[in-house]
Amino acid sequence: MRRYLRVVVLCLACGFCSLLYAFSQLAVSLEEGAGGSGGKPQAAAASWLGGGGRGAARGAGSAGPAAHPGRSDRYSLKLQPIERMHLAVVACGERLEETVTMLKSALIFSIKPLQFHIFAEDQLHDSFKVILDSWSFLQTFNYSLYPITFPSENAAEWKKLFKPCASQRLFLPLILKEVDSLLYVDTDILFLRPVDDIWSLLKKFNSTQIAAMAPEHEEPRIGWYNRFARHPYYGKTGVNSGVMLMNMTRMRRKYFKNDMTTVRLRWGDILMPLLKKYKLNITWGDQDLLNIIFFHNPESLFVFPCQWNYRPDHCIYGSNCQEAEEEGIFILHGNRGVYHDDKQPAFRAIYEALRNCSFEDDSIHSLLKPLELELQKTVHTYCGKIYKVFIKQLTKSIQDRYDRPPKER
Ligand SMILES: *[C@@H]1O[C@H](CO)[C@@H](O)[C@H](O)[C@H]1NC(C)=O
Ligand SMILES: *[C@@H]1O[C@H](CO)[C@@H](O)[C@H](O)[C@H]1NC(C)=O
Ligand SMILES: *[C@@H]1O[C@H](CO)[C@@H](O)[C@H](O)[C@H]1NC(C)=O
Ligand SMILES: *[C@@H]1O[C@H](CO)[C@@H](O)[C@H](O)[C@H]1NC(C)=O
Ligand SMILES: *[C@@H]1O[C@H](CO)[C@@H](O)[C@H](O)[C@H]1NC(C)=O
Q1: May I ask which residue range the UniProt record assigns to the signal sequence (predicted)?
Q2: How far is 165 from 141, CA to CA, in rounded Å?
Q3: CA angle (379 as vertex; 375, 380 as ends), nearest 5
């Protein structure tokens, strides 16, 4: 009898325990369903949702599961694994400040953590290191510095093509062999929206697309390729390679149609013959080679609208990027040196505002008013005419990132 009683008690105890466990599981899943508004789950959620910068640095004080993928915390295991967004840039000559401002703009607005791949001339490495290490409190990015390298055959020729080292970008799929996807940008890019937004386009690629770029021009009457090119180019007006999203896994796998041999060639094998064939006919270096490649392989290119690569060309002859006026300017591309001269004061004002600000919330909020005043002064210029579009975009991006919980984005 006593033994029987003991068994009953044991069973009751076991039942009670499993009931408790079931309730605790239920509670956890409810909390997570509600966006992690509870105690501990919130810390975990906040540290990666706020992973774009301020939230993580100030909040949980931890880089979250992204930085500790092995952490066995039950709550973080339940969260999606964090994919890092890879951003690459090639900096040579006097491009330090510009590159740093670009990287800063990426960090100010982005949500998911970033991994920077910085290809730079040796004499710039120390300066990059000092500046980026001083941002390490953000805990939302890491970086690698690489020297500029070209295949030993024709190295000199690649190096002097168009601008010094610009053609480095063509070799990124071959150098960064471990990286699946990458956003390449020129140094004169400023992000006015989170990098997450353009990164999400990778998932929109159909099965044959391997890279994404914006058209070189919206208006064929002022297009360069369609009027002057002495080589094939993509589409009606060509594409601009200043902002190039790549699925490098696919680029490395693909065999490319071409006009040099009847067999299809891999990325690593196509570049050299292409340079040999076209070097006397190309003007914009590596961008022209990309245009030739995608002329022959149009099914492989995803073309995104001009607001992802907004250049002075889109406003100096009148406004010709309709999408930007309607939906906003997502990525600004101050080519032809407009951040540093007086030709396009609207572009310059935005560059200086971002260059001057720090990562503090206050600093970012207080960037808008003086910028608006500055931009109003440019209203007599073509690009200044649409200054309200610039202000609207920045206001929205700052609100999204700093004034609302990330969940509502
Ligand atoms: C950056 O972080 C990723 C993910 O945690 C890691 O795989 C990579 O090795 C890191 N890179 C550097 C240079 O620390
Ligand atoms: C280069 O341009 C010249 C002059 O327009 C043209 O005749 C020639 O076919 C071009 N070369 C190639 C490889 O397309
Ligand atoms: C890139 O393409 C590969 C092969 O199709 C695919 O497995 C991978 O998920 C793609 N990457 C992204 C970020 O979509
Ligand atoms: C993918 O999209 C491109 C561009 O719109 C198109 O040319 C290509 O045929 C599409 N591929 C597939 C498999 O649908
Ligand atoms: C940025 O700082 C410079 C001086 O460092 C100043 O001349 C300029 O007016 C500032 N610009 C903006 C937009 O804050």
Answers
A1: none
A2: 25
A3: 140
